[in-house]
Amino acid sequence: MSFLQVLWFILIGVLFAGFFFLDGFDFGVGMATRSLAHNEEERTQIIETIGPVWDGNEVWLITAGGAMFASFPYWYATLFSGYYLILLMILFGLIIRGVSFEFRVASAPEKQPLWSWALALGSLIVPFFLGVMFVSMIQGMPIDAKGNMSAGFFDYFNLMSIVGGVAVVLLSYLHGLNYIALKTLGDIRERARNYAEFLYWILYVGLVVFAILLFFKTDFFQVRPIGTLVTVVLIVLFSVLGHVATFKGNEMVAFISSGLTFVSLVAMIFVGMFPRVMISSISDKFDLLINSASSTSYTLTVMTIATVCLLPFVLAYTIWAYWIFRKRIALPAVQTSEVVK
């Protein structure tokens, strides 16, 4: 493996981590429109918190897919063809979530609940199927010597992958609750904190179940024992830190902690897979490896130069956008307003 191959493997992991950190709370806010808000005014209030940023956050996922296509075309080909139907469901969720923002604003008051439901449903579908995809991938899929995946229903949907899907949904919801508490004023803020305080106890149970399944259903603790253990400990540590911060009313710490829980989860996946990009359940001889799945050195060099030149502008714009829209959203201020775009 060359330095550039390892670098781009890490960068793809960073892109997925950035997506879950940023768009994870968008999904949580979307789900909260039907579970946390009590009326359309409160739904408008919490939607306003992500109105200026949700579409930019979604770009991290598109960028991760594009980077995978350019830097590891064989990984991209196996993953996207083997998970075609799963990715179709993710795309469906992203579409109905995206249009719901626009259609809810343009609809008559009696039609707005329909699009609130569409937002909540799309926000649930995407993290669930992403969790199923990533967790089934680390268990190993039936990949042959040519990199073709011939998977059945239970390769995709089994105990561990479903637990993983539910865990990602719960983490997204908690991340969204912490964001709502950070960005709102009034009853919805206190309600979000109360929901989060309770749901963290459920998360602990899920983490224990997931850690047990990770030990018995994957080879992570055999091939990367130290790295896997460290990342699992970080997941638990950030979860506990977020829970304590929620009890103390430290909303910024709670939000950052739930985001770092996501980052630690992605780190665990990429550390455990290294130096593989796809794990074959047929034979370890059929695993896709970094050095055999990547593009040429010239391609990786050009991509690195382009990234170094463009990344500062992207990060600067992202920071600027969050700074501009840093104020809390109060209920009276949104009762007659539209979603900020």
From TrEMBL:
Give the record's membrane topology: Multi-pass membrane protein
Q: What GO terms fall under cellular component here?
A: cytochrome complex; plasma membrane
Instruction: Mark the transmembrane ranges.
Output: 6-25, 83-103, 115-136, 156-177, 198-216, 222-241, 253-278, 298-325
The record's annotation in Pfam families points to: Cyt_bd_oxida_II
Biological processes, Gene Ontology terms: aerobic electron transport chain
UniProt record similarity statement: Belongs to the cytochrome ubiquinol oxidase subunit 2 family.
Q: Which protein, by its recorded name, is this?
A: Cytochrome d ubiquinol oxidase, subunit II
Species of origin reads Ligilactobacillus apodemi DSM 16634 = JCM 16172
